[in-house]
Automatic annotation (TrEMBL):
It is an enzyme of class 6 (ligase). Its EC number is 6.5.1.2. This is DNA ligase. Its cofactor is Mg(2+); Mn(2+). Pfam families: BRCT, DNA_ligase_aden, DNA_ligase_ZBD, HHH_2, Nlig-Ia, OB_DNA_ligase.
Length: 664
């Protein structure tokens, strides 16, 4: 039964990553890693058909409709393509088509890395735009698409109904411009242009779409009432004549050799393109041949998508430096001989920890193979010992902090090495940066460069000093270290505004080890104020949902420090809120002693809103399902938590059930 267990594991894993990619626009793994998981599941389902099920993720498109946007049913199902990963796979597909069809031609196109949309036109006028969603029902983003300059608002030939499919994307130049601006104001740094484009198109504010300058390529004609086309290439050329920006530089081929040459040419130029691609698409050109070939249960038989492997390059490790994080963690960083990789110049890559260095046997002077995880984050894959110079020596992270000179010690039963100093400047800088971040106190305009400048010039030493910056307004304006008058005033206003935050934000901002924003919310929901949390005993904390021994010990240890007491007293004097507003909203105790777990997308409320309702009536919200769980509140696309709830016999409720429990 090991095979069945592995199949179930893979299904849960794919469903989870589908949710991250399609609905949250925030993937945790690379496309390549996702493809490998999917391939393994397809192979196992094929070899063991007795374990096949109709709702397997291999049988459906990964996304769902976003709750806030109007749902629209597709006229033509929006399907994915079969992925292939080798030259042999491409030749096999092309040669199979040649055997089944009469002298077919093929179109090879760039697979733009963006968000798929369908555009609808009535009598030549643009009337609707829809995301893919689950392939059957998408979400209307019409108002946002109106803000994209290259979406034709009307076309010359006024056919009764026209439907085309395209890919909305963001150019590399725009992506870099937005991230530079985010860095200047201390905002979130976006990881990929694709995710930013997808998130932007699904915004409820069209002004954001206009500001971010999205673009589109149309790659398929779905419906055209009043005109017939013989081939895909003919339809693309006609669409181009109507003002659409169609698949750039698509290539018509007749043989497998020509198809592979076209794929190789795209691969060779991919990093010099002004936009991202995640593969090349090979399609049968004839539309009548496509109709004859039809589809499998999930993908068309007349097309495949070739996925390029991550680009890898050789370079040398010129040095290894150590960075000090906000919690004192010492992170080794490989300083590399600069090399052009995946479209940018790479000169450094994290080495994570000492165990990572030892396992991969990475030494200064080594020749190494590097790639970008997800074409974004540089990583060292391995060293090449046969190219190692004689003078290369094994590297050991120092046993003293490189910034403050305090002893550095390895965690007991852990892999991290941390600075033990209490006055480490590097820790202090990163601590203030984290305090100002969006998940914590959300102080706009206080980015890493501003924090470092303020601390270097002595205006702040810790987070409490932020609330005294207004006393130095004129000096800061004159020196210009964080900008001119407007920038200084905006920052002072943002700092002042942060005083009103609920205490979960403040607790998060303290940067207590193993305490993130969810843990901070639990504390705020169970204690009247910060003083009560500081005075809490082990027995009070360990009973809270998802609180384990290590986390509780970290909380107790943090609040036991005299320096923390002094810091909190200074924050109080500055007027920072210390009272839990979560408890002020409490209505009664009908959910007292009950623990809820939330999973999936709810129809009319966010998970945060549902959490607030549960806490208002005395309930607790946990992140994981166990025998102690009272209810699992399940929405659309619920994943592994729902499966575990069924296995344990935990009661499963819907949003309507929750509302009914509250109303009654």
């Amino acid at each position: 039964m090991e095979v069945k267990k592995r199949i179930e594991e893979l299904r849960k894993l794919i469903e989870y990553h589908n949710e991250r990619y399609y609905n949250q626009d925030d993937p945790e793994i690379t496309d390549y890693e996702y493809d490998q998981i999917s391939l393994e599941l397809r192979r196992l389902e094929k070899e063991y058909p007795e374990f096949a099920v109709a709702d397997s993720p291999t049988q459906k498109v990964g996304g769902s409709s976003k709750r806030e946007l109007r749902k629209v049913q597709h006229d033509v199902p929006v399907v994915s393509l079969q992925d292939v990963f080798s030259k042999e796979d491409v030749y096999s597909f092309v040669n199979k088509m040649i055997q089944e069809l009469s002298e077919p031609t093929f179109i090879v196109e760039k697979k733009i890395d963006g968000l798929s949309v369908v555009l609808r036109y009535n009598d030549g006028s643009f009337v609707e735009g829809i995301t893919r969603g689950d392939g059957i029902i998408g979400e209307s983003v019409y108002e946002n698409l109106l803000e994209i300059q290259n979406v034709p608002k009307s076309i010359p030939q006024k056919y009764p109904y026209l439907e085309v499919r395209g890919e909305v994307y963001m150019t590399n130049e725009t992506f870099e411009r937005i991230n530079r601006k985010q860095e200047e104001v201390g905002g979130k740094i976006y990881q990929t242009a694709r995710n930013l484009a997808a998130g932007t198109l699904r915004q409820l504010d069209s002004a954001i779409v206009k500001e971010r300058n999205l673009d589109i390529f149309v790659f398929n004609l779905e419906i055209c009432q009043g005109r017939e086309f013989a081939s895909h290439s003919e339809s693309l050329n006609w669409l181009k004549s109507q003002g659409f920006h169609v698949s750039p530089d698509f290539c018509v081929c007749k043989t497998a050799d020509e198809v592979w040459e076209a794929i190789s040419n795209i691969g060779n130029s991919r990093w010099s393109l002004p936009f991202g691609i995640d593969g090349a698409v090979v399609k049968v050109d004839s539309l009548s041949d496509r109709a004859r070939l039809g589809m499998t249960s999930k993908v068309p038989r007349w097309a495949v998508a070739y996925k390029y492997p991550p680009e890898q390059k050789e370079t040398t490790v010129e040095n290894i430096e150590v960075q000090v994080g906000r919690t004192g963690r010492l992170t080794p960083l490989a300083i590399l001989k600069s090399v052009r990789l995946a479209g940018t110049t790479v000169s450094r890559a994290t080495l994570h920890n000492q165990d990572y260095i030892d396992m991969k046997d990475i030494r200064i002077g080594d020749t190494v193979i590097i790639q970008k995880a997800g074409d974004i984050i540089p990583e060292v894959l391995r060293s090449i010992p046969e190219k190692r110079p004689p003078e290369a020596q094994k590297y050991m992270i120092p046993n003293v902090c490189p910034k403050c000179g305090a002893p550095a010690a390895r965690e007991e039963n852990g892999v991290e090495i941390r600075c033990t100093g209490t006055d480490c400047f590097a820790q202090a800088i990163r601590g203030v940066i984290y305090f100002a971040s969006k998940d914590a106190m959300n102080i706009e305009g206080l980015g890493p460069s501003s924090v470092e400048a303020l601390m270097t010039d002595g205006y702040i030493k810790d987070i409490a000093d932020l609330y005294s910056l207004k006393n130095y307004r004129e000096e800061l304006i004159n020196k210009g270290i964080i900008g001119k008058e407007k920038s200084v005033d905006n920052l002072i206003k943002a700092i002042d505004k942060s005083k009103e935050n609920d205490i979960d934000k403040l607790i998060t901002g303290f940067g207590i080890r193993n305490v993130g924003k969810q843990t901070a919310r639990v504390l705020a929901a169970n204690f009247r104020d910060l003083d009560s949390i500081m005075e809490a005993k082990y027995d009070q904390l360990i009973t809270l949902p998802d609180f384990g021994d290590i986390m509780v010990q970290d909380i107790l240890s943090f609040f036991a420090r005299p320096t923390v007491h002094t810091l909190i007293d200074r924050l109080k004097e500055s007027g920072v809120n210390m009272v839990s507003r979560a408890l002020d909203k409490k209505k009664d105790d009908r959910f007292s002693g009950k623990t809820f777990v939330l999973t999936g997308t709810l129809p009319s409320m966010t998970r945060d809103e549902a959490t607030e309702i549960i806490q208002m009536y005395g309930g607790k919200v946990s992140g994981s399902v166990s025998k102690k769980t009272s209810y699992v509140l399940a929405g659309e696309d619920a994943g592994s938590k729902l499966v575990k709830a069924r296995e344990l016999g935990v009661a499963i409720i819907s949003e309507e059930d929750l509302k009914s429990m509250v109303e009654n």
